[in-house]
Amino acid sequence: MTLITRRSILMAGTATAGALLVPAAVGTATAAPKASGSRITVGSGETYEVAATTRVSRLTVAEGGTLTAPEGYLLSLTVDGVETGQLLTVTGGTLTLIQPGTYQGDVVLTVAEANEVTYETLTFPFRQALYVGSDGVDRDRSVLTAVLGGRVTDALARNVSITSTGECFNGVFVQDGTYTLQRPTLSFTGNGRCDFAGYGAAVVGDGAATTLVVEDGEITTKGVVRTAVIANGGANVVVKNTTIQTRNGTLPADYQATVETPYMQSVPWMLGLDGNVRATNLVGAGSKATYLNSTVLSETWGALSVEGGSGLKLTAVNSRIGNTGAYGYGTYAIGDATVRVLGCRFEVGSYATIIAGPAAVVHYGDSTKEAVAALNTELALGLSAAELKALPARNTVVNSGHFGYMFFGAGRLTLDGGTVVNSERATFLNKGQQTAIAVDGSQGARLDPGDGIVLQMIELDDPGPVSVDGKMLNVGVYTEPTDDPAKDSSFDVTAAHATDGAATFTSIELEGDFYNGMRTGKNMVLTFEDSTVRGVISASRTKHRVTTIDASNFQELGIVTNTVQPAVNNGVVVTLGSGSAWTVTGTSHLTSLTVAADAAVSAPRGRTLTATVDGTATTLAPGATYTGAITLTVA
């Protein structure tokens, strides 16, 4: 075995913050049983331990041959500055090996100290081009031969490029350090392994003491869970003026789709989505990720994701967010996450946001000077006065090829400013969740559902995972119920409950329908203040277009037809506040209706409105409240 002494990658006398770092000065393999001149050959059945970083012109690994590093170290291969050759040994595993083949050119085998990251039940052996700790770049954990061009110091990397075609290689990993990436170009092709831990991501900021700034960059990835940017463990990651784009890879042939996060490598289809890579992820406790004046695109799955943890804050300002494929979301909100979207343009396949609760807070609005300045302080973004001044105030526009917002869990959603939501289907899809939706149209906010439904409430149609041989696999099947819902006499359909699906609309003109198709006890509670609404507001019986839904036709989830009917356990509680007017365009079944003194309920011009309460003809009067089985018909 050839022994190569390692030399420091720090130039003499420059081991201080701001010092220029250069790639390792590595040795050349000399004659040995498995090395000849500047070549290394590993035969079938042989194991070759690379004791120290080694440079050769040719590396040949036969089938059955193995390259290893000493215990406590990890081995990475670069050819002409490109990390390559490494693949996972098994699906769902954590270890990688250099694959059989012949590698020629500037071939460097880097031996670096292991960076082991534990997530739940697994420990992932991270390899990264640039490892930054509290004292700056850690040369012993970095593969600096994969960092090309530009300048690298303990405080920043400028104009560098990092390219990887192997699996599970990370670009930049910052652990409890402060670092800036200026004008980076990161290109990663090949699969990652776990985007909850960040194994295989282009950029990872980890730890409560981390502040990582990425500016004027370009990050592209193609591969299963080959995420572009991850903020974890309380890190503060700020991305400015950067383009991020991720594309799906090819799942291993023996991969089993699961919701078990240490093993999950594709989106659960039960969300009505497909895909196997999301552009970004925000995890851990107290982590923050902010995207300013940037473009973030995923092919499918999701662009800006929040997964697990607590106290997470995701923010997008004046950015372009979306999906280049047919399905996907712009943002995801789970737990008690706070998601803010100001002045952005969304072009999404399926949803602007999936709200998965149970206490998520989501806000879409304008990027006013005041709002951005407040975020600069709250999130410690580090924007200068000049940067704040140069940031234009914009409204948010959402264009969705499916629904606007989907509630998969409880949460609060606020739309205000000049926010415009254009969606092919319902603006709000509530799958049986407690909601607090607030839409303020006083500054021009507008909702435009293509199918004419503003709010649709349905039972949760997610069949959930199924336990198979001890694994939670995504093989469930949703089956449309055919029986009538049984009346729950203990549930009051005429009252507003804290657990209902509630929405308030202020100073806005609305055109579209509102349906509560729940079978179990949950009311739709609607409040209109200084607003006009034209459409049907009713309890309904819903029906999917197909009777069963599984992974093969996941796109059918959430799509239903409505047949209006009197409420069973799905009350409709409507308050027309001051200055509001409802033009009823079709038969509507309510359980409570309050009409303010200066509010009105009417039929379209040339038609007649008839109201009954518990079967008795009733003239609706301003300043009154009606409860019971209320039916409004238009003739």
Summarize the structure.
With 635 residues, this protein is an all-beta fold. Helices cover 3% and strands 47% of the residues. The protein is elongated.
Overall description:
With about 625 residues, the protein is mainly beta. The protein is about 5% helix and about 45% strand. A hairpin with a 7-residue loop joins strand 10 (about 85-90) and strand 11. The longest helix is centred in the middle third of the chain and has 10 residues, at about 370-380. The chain starts with 19 loop residues before the first strand and ends with a strand.
Mean pLDDT: 94
Most strands sheet: 19 strands, mixed
- The coarse overall form would be elongated
Please state the structural category.
mainly beta
Strand content: over 45%
Helix content: under 10%
Radius of gyration: 28 Å
**Low-confidence runs of at least 5 consecutive residues:** 1-33
> What is the CA–CA distance across the termini?
92 Å
Number of DSSP E strands: 64
Number of helices: 2
